[in-house]
Amino acid sequence: MAFVDLAARKIAMTVVYYGPAGSGKTACIRHVYARTGGAQAAPPRDDHRRGYYDLLPLQLGEIRGFRTHFDLLSVPSGDAAAETRRALLEKVDGVVFVADGREERGAANAASLAELRVFLSTHGLDLALLPYVVQVNHADAPSAASPATTATPLIRWHPQPAAVPVLTTVATTGAGVFEALKAISRLCLAELKRSRNG
User: Fold this and answer.
1) What is the gyration radius of the CA atoms in the chain, in angstroms?
2) Among 85, 88, 66, which Cα is nearest to 76's?
3) Is 153 exposed, middle or buried (0-12, 13-18, 19+ CB in 10 A)?
């Protein structure tokens, strides 16, 4: 969860990019890495077979006098990495669900979302209470479904589905990637403000 150091005027938060294998999680992190000059971290890895995950520390500058830092994590895929995915959610502040927009991947999206909710529950967390953004990727694929078709099953369980930002992206070119990052950042900061005022 968010770390706030009043003396140092620093906020640190964690955003996890979750979704099925091949949905474009690492491509998102790679695009952010490339656009931020690649000076803050090693480039993300392509090999998730051993449970490696991608971590990109990102400085967002000062917000209301606080230096604001986000750790962006993309989870590894595959059955062997399930425990790594679960562990990475322990201190999450917000989730970007990277859905595979190809029509044939609807079942994989649903299975990944179900796993995400179960894994969060093992940490006492509820996705309905966390900042949550759905990023419909592979929008340029020949078999891409409409964004609404892909996103609806991923938000209809939410108590306020209309409040969940849904963004269409092509992570390989970067289209929409920063818009999704901005959306989750805004939600995380708003939730932090609400919780501290609450």
Assistant:
1) 16
2) 85
3) middle
Phi, psi of 18 (to 5 degrees): -120, 155
Please give the Cα distance from 77 to 82 (Å, whole number).
8
Cα–Cα dist 2/17, whole Å = 17
Of 86, 82, 93, which is closest to residue 58 (Cα–Cα)? 93
With CA atoms as reference, report the closest residue to 74 among 101, 37, 41, 105.
41
Whether residue 108 contacts residue 138, with contact meaning beta carbons closer than 8 Å, is answered with: no
Q: Give the 3-state secondary structure of residue 115.
A: helix
109-152 per-position pLDDT tens digit: 999 999 999 999 999 999 999 999 999 999 999 999 999 999 99
What is the chain's length? Answer: 198
At 175-196, the pLDDT tens digits run: 999 999 999 999 998 998 888 7
d(Cα 13, Cα 20) in Å, to the nearest integer?
23
Question: Rounded to whole angstroms, how far apart are CA atoms 127 and 122?
Answer: 12
CATH superfamily of 3-197: P-loop containing nucleotide triphosphate hydrolases (3.40.50.300)
